Every structure is written in structure tokens, then in C-alpha cells.
Amino acid sequence: MSIFPIILMTVLAVWALCATVLAVVSARRLRREQEAHGVAQDRMDRYRAALRRSEEKASAVALQFEALQREYVALRRSQEESEAEPSERPVPTVMIDCLDISGEIGTLFEHVARVATAIRDYSAYTRGHYGPEHSKARYDLLWLSDCLHTLDRVGKALAAGSQRSLASACQELLQMYDAYLTDGSGYDSRDTFRRLSERVPLRAVSDAIRSIAMKTAVPPASTSEMPAPATIPPVSAPVTGPPPTTGQRSMPGSALAQQA
Length: 260
What we know:
This is Secreted protein. It comes from Pseudoxanthomonas suwonensis (strain 11-1). By secondary structure, the protein is an all-alpha fold. It has two domains: about 20-80; about 95-235, no CATH class. It is built from nine helices and two strands; from the N terminus they run αββαααααααα. The protein has helices at about 5-85, 100-120, 125-130, 135-145, 150-160, 165-180, 190-195, 200-215, 255-260, and strands at about 95, 100. A hairpin with a 2-residue loop joins strand 1 (about 95) and strand 2. Helix 2 packs antiparallel against helix 8 (about 200-215) and helix 5 runs antiparallel to helix 6 (about 165-180). The protein is rod-shaped and about 165 Å long. It starts with a helix and ends with a helix.
């Protein structure tokens, strides 16, 4: 019997044994890998489920946050509205015979304040600190004080509640203020109020006085009973020195001041 078949059988047996061992080892390794893959798959499934729950929770929290934010904005707005002062409605504060003249009276008060501020600049303190006074300062003081002296009639008419007296006082004031801007005599009120037009404007106060006069105008049926107001000259107090004569009416105020 030949030895070759024995050697061949031995080699095949060894090869089969090695293949079997390798197959067993590979099978065990594959089984471990499958188990590890299954564990990892389960872990990933759990992670996915946890992530899904976290996303749902985050969405719910975001919705709650938006709701709370809207509620906060609404509460903040309501608080600001409650703390804000209510808009003040204009209420007639000065009325005479059911006529509202509060706006016009406010304009008269503003005019008085402007005149007082302008007069203050002619004080001795101002002259000592801001240089010599204007050459027509005494005429300026005359006209600034003169434009206020008839306001006492307005005050008395308001205190008495007399519509007729108030209309008469307003007509007198209008005549005075119209005369101020047309006077070309030596005392020259026109020059004073033109130089001080920015500080003591007569247009606004004249419009306010004219508005009061129109509101308090007497109806046509009773106009015949109302006496015509006397024309009052605009000068309320004499100026030191002789009054300008006919030949002096065109002379400037500074020349009259030197003569005085």
C-alpha cells in the first residue's frame, strides 16, 4: 500500500480541523458582534426615544414660553396704561355768560409776563451789568407799562361777570394797540413796539382780544341800548417834559428826550 494516500488524508484532516477551528472562532466572533450590534441598536433606539421625548418637551416649553411672553407683554401694557396719567380733556376754566374764553385769557397772561420780562431789563441792575441803556429807554418803559394799564377793566368785567363791560374793555384795548403801531409822534410808540416785536409781540394778544370782543359782541337787537365806547388815547401817563407841539411831531424820541 502506498504512503501517499495516508499523507493526503492526514493533510485533509488537518485542513478540516483548522477550518473547523476557524469557523468556530469566526462564529463566536460574529455572535459577539451581533450581540454588540443588537445592544448598540437597542441603545440607539432608547436614545432616539429620549431625543424624541426631549424634542416634544422642548416644543411644549417653547409654547409655554411664548404664552408667558404674550401674557407678560399684555400685563406690561396694562400696567403702563394704568400708571399713565389719563389724557386731560380741555375744560373751560374761564367762562362768562356760557362763553369759553379761557384760551384768550391765557394769551393775555402770557402777554403780561412778556411785558414784565421786558421791563425788568430796564432796571438799574441790568443797566449796571449790561452797559448803558437805550436812548429811548424812558419811552419804552412808558409804552410797556401803558399797554397793561387797561387790563384792570378786563379783570373787573370778568369778576363782575358783565359781558357788556368785557366787550367795552376789549374794544378799548384794541384801539390802544392799533394806535401803538401807527403813532409817529415824538413819543413814537410805533418805534418801541417794532424794536421789541420779538419780545413783546402785539399780534397774538390783539387776536386774543379781538376774539373776546367777537364772542362777547352784543346781539343786534340790543346794540341800540349799548352806549358807544369812548375813544381812549393810548397814553396812560404823561412823560416828563413838554408834550410835542405840531412842529415837533416828526422829531425822534431821542431829540425830545434831550429837550426834556
